[in-house]
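Example 678, ligand FE(4)-NI(1)-S(5) cluster.
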Amino acid sequence: MSADEIKAKAEVKAKKTVNPREVTVDPATQQMLEKAAKDGVETIFDRAITMKPCNIGEQGTCCKNCSQGPCRLPLPKKGIEGKDERKGLCGATPETIAARNFARMVAGGAAAHSDHGRGVAEVFLAAARRETEDYHIQDIEKLLEIAPDFEVATTVIVDGQEQERDVYEIAVEVGEKALAEWGKQEGEIYYAKRAPEARYKLWQDLDVVPRGIDREIVEIMHRTHMGVDQDYRNIIKQCSRAAIGDGWAGSMIATDLQDILFGTPYPTQGEINLGVLKADHVNIIVHGHEPLLSEMIVVAAQSPEMLDYAKQKGAKGIILAGMCCTANEILMRHGMPIAGNYLQQELAIVTGALDAMVVDVQCIMENIANVAQCYHTKVITTNPRAMIESGDTVHIEFDEHHALEDAKKIVKTAIDNFPNRKAEAMIPAAKEKMVVGFSYEAINYHLGGTFRGSYWPLNDNIINGRIRGIGGVVGCNNARTTHDEGHLIVVKELLKNDVIVLTTGCNAMACGKAGLLTPEAAKVYCGPGLAEVCETVGIPPVLHMGSCVDNSRILMAATQVVKAGGLGKDISDLPAAGSAPEWMSEKAISIGHYFVTAGVYTVFGVGLPVTGAPRFQKYLFEELEDIYGGMWDLVVDPYEHAQKMIKHIDKKRKALGLDKGKERVLMDMADRQKLDAA
Ligand code: NFS
Ligand code: SF4
């Protein structure tokens, strides 16, 4: 190609505009992309066309861990012939470089989840000590259930008689011990013992039980500093510690304490997509992750004082909707609507009807501040960890000690902005109904029933083959792939093949928008076995379990399935697989790795920055199976992605002797014990 030709081609590429039907399968998103183009507003979808990723970074083999680099080691075009001679200046191999980069993603992801968890633990402790008026110990049953895990007694002996301990006293002790999990230097995190016994023993044998949440993250940063750990297997061992510290401590404590403060979710109805906004109402979106903020905004937005104020300003009421994982939190506990998932954040502003976007931490695109300048929307940052320099964002700091007061200030700012609307507001009609809030306690109740109070009926349906297996499909959207398409193809393929799906995060929202989170979806999308079970029990075939920190609920559900019996002794024995078809965040890598270390075959879509280091990739994709019983995989095509999960599920069924088309009889206790003994 001549220089002129190259230039001409680049110009064509630069002019290429977004085709809404190519970049998303969601009708509301398509509609808003058309409006954005008409309004001359640039979004992430435009930049995904004009800016392509660096292929060396994509392969995972760019190192900038010291200033002698960046050292860039792309795979040679013709592949590796003979010995791989690629080296950084210091001699670091592609394996070392890719493993270090991978480890730093685990550290970033585990830190994000865990720092969120720390914040929850601090507020929990403040509530337990009654230092705040705005947060309370609500779910006492759950407090009493988790107290023994922290070795906190729930009864005392007084005059030789066993008595119940004061709830607040228990809560203080639980809060102190939970908070201490972050800074613990030795021993083991408490919740490691929650895993099935075989798993816990395996972690002990492998010496990967986390000592403390922060310590394992810091150790990743140390080991990946220039010239420290130079064996990818040893680096991954530390990733395992940090990731287990995320899944079974940082995230799991966040989930538990949030449940105690705000209530354990049980199935409830909700609505999703940009169509939940209303033109004649003050529209507020809370976007981000921490329910500490959003719970208070819910209270503020529902207060008569704020409703009156909104009316004074000419609005009919206040619509409070969520975006990203904050949305999942307030939806599950209060039935508040969801405006959309990660890739819709700029487009919510493009409606022209959004009076405020209130953000805290994580998954907030800086560009919302620029988009907001094209409309009247106020972007309000609230967390001292997360400010935005672009645009004219306002910062109203949210302090737990006067939480409700701050929340009212935020809601008032939104209401004050209502009269500033410009004429061209346009809200897409698209919205869907859904049933959400399947905590593992709720699944126990719905599928297990009170009769046995266990997951046994679920196990029974897996054993008799009505349900082929369990798929955990989670994770983000990614502008490098068609919005929501991968999510929906993977989930629908699994359902068609009788695989029940547990979901969280932005996948849950993609499923919600497509109508998969309704009991009626069973008849439309499921194979006959799964459809029958869902219809009998009255549940959707895709169970919404919450936000991304709530992936810890999936770990607990998997553990409950193991404990109910008949499906082996460990999570790695279960006919189950994990998936993140459109992942993008570092948190997804940490989650992926804690699933792998729990024994789950975990498939990612889009790409994984390991392809430039073949031996490291083989270690993650194959060799880890011999160590943990679970391993990573990368399958970009969503159909093949689902098929590989199903193949793995069938492999596990075969190992359990469930491949012979069992009679559909309900097993009794004796049969179950026989199976367990086998
Ligand atoms: Ni999870 Fe949830 Fe969404 Fe991805 Fe972001 S909101 S925490 S990281 S993009 S699923
Ligand atoms: Fe290059 Fe080694 Fe420095 Fe990385 S640590 S930038 S590979 S010299």
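Summary: Residues 289, 324-325, 342, 363, 475-476, 505-506, 547-548, 585, 587 surround FE(4)-NI(1)-S(5) cluster (ligand 1) (CB under 6 Å).
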